[in-house]
Every structure is written in structure tokens, then in C-alpha cells.
Amino acid sequence: MGKETGDKSKDKVTFSKDFSATDDAVRNIKDMSEIREDKVAAIKRRLASGRYRVEGDRVASRLLCETEENNDILKQIDIDG
């Protein structure tokens, strides 16, 4: 049977400053509300006054950009996975 040697060394993990900064950023994002109260209030005011209008071209452009970004992320996952 094995005999204990008295060596009680433990494994140690050290994270870089970059990891720590990334971890802090992720924590901050998780703490943020998904609803931008300031923007919601501004849109409500514009709706009430009749000054709100949707710019279809802008909406379509943003949707396309987000779709491209999401596709790039999915490609990276497929490559690394």
C-alpha cells in the first residue's frame, strides 16, 4: 500500500491580468439591465408627440450587420468545435 510522504504541495493556478479584466467586463455586462431606460423614455416622448418615425433602411442595415456578425461567430464555433 502507498505511504504518505508528507509532501503536501498543492496545485496552483494563476490568471493573467487580461483574464481578470475580461472576467470583470463579463461580470459588469451580466449586472447591466437589458433595457435601456433612457432610450425607452426618449422613444415614449417622441411617440406621444407624434415625432417618432421608423427608418426602415436603417433597421434593415442593422439587422444585416448583426446577421453577418452572428454568422462569423457560428463559423468560429464550427472551426474550433
Poorly predicted runs of 5 or more residues = none
Structural class: mainly alpha
Radius of gyration: 25 Å
Number of domains: 1
Characterize the biggest β-sheet. none
- What is the helix/strand order? HHH
Helix content: 55-70%
Number of helices, counting only DSSP H or I runs of 4 residues or more: 3
Task: Describe the structure in your own words.
Helix content is 65%, strand content 0%. By secondary structure, the chain is mainly α. The protein has one domain. It is elongated.
Question: Could you outline the blueprint of secondary structure elements for this entry?
Answer:
Elements: H1 17-31, H2 37-49, H3 56-80
Organism: Desulfosarcina ovata subsp. sediminis
InterPro entries: Anti-sigma-28_factor_FlgM_sf, FlgM, FlgM_C
Keywords: Bacterial flagellum biogenesis, Repressor, Transcription, Transcription regulation
Key descriptive features of the protein:
81 residues, mainly alpha, 3 helices, 65% helix
